[in-house]
């Protein structure tokens, strides 16, 4: 059996990672994005998870500004007019939590976890539309305090 040198192993890893820019969302090939996964849980629970990869470079991450904390607070707001409030009012969700799931050196995974009603199970596309509409409006118009 022929043993590999340390350099051969490094070359193989570099080849595997060639073309991936870990400071950019292109690190996530298109075939890994935009997937809908449905499964039947063992327990009787209705949940909807949405996960976004976000480049820390895109956030212009600075420990003094803390945009991630700001976005998390905004999306977890439960006051009238908030995303949560509107989805509960429509009878789609029971609870919503949003925040970072996994933070790496150059990117993070940001997620929504929602406990949804039976109506929400049937109308999950409307929940997704409302979330993306909320994010688009927030991006376009900004936030007034």
Q: Characteristics of this structure?
A:
globular, alpha+beta, 5 helices, 35% helix, 3 strands, 21% strand, three-stranded antiparallel beta sheet, Cytochrome Bc1 Complex, Chain A, domain 1, disordered N terminus, 145 residues, single chain
Concise synopsis of the structure shown:
The protein has 145 residues and is of the alpha+beta class. The protein is 35% helix and 21% strand.
Report the total helices: 5
Count of individual beta strands: 3
What's the end-to-end separation, in Å?
67 Å
Strand order of the largest sheet: 1-3-2
Number of self-contained structural domains: 1
Radius of gyration: 19 Å
Uncertain residue ranges: 1-23
Biggest beta-sheet profile: 3 strands, antiparallel
SSE string, helix = H, strand = E? HEHHEEHH
CATH overall fold name:
Cytochrome Bc1 Complex, Chain A, domain 1
Strand content: 15-25%
Q: What helical percentage do the residues reach? A: 25-40%
Main CATH class: Alpha Beta
- The CATH homologous superfamily corresponds to Metalloenzyme, LuxS/M16 peptidase-like
Shape: globular
Structural class given helices, strands, pairing? alpha+beta
Question: What does the model show?
Answer:
With 145 residues, this protein is an alpha+beta fold. The chain has one domain (6-141): Cytochrome Bc1 Complex, Chain A, domain 1 (2-Layer Sandwich), CATH 3.30.830. It has helices spanning 6-17, 67-75, 83-89, 118-122, 124-141, and strands at 47-55, 93-103, 107-116. A three-stranded antiparallel sheet has the order 1-3-2. It is globular and about 40 Å long. The N and C termini lie far apart (67 Å).
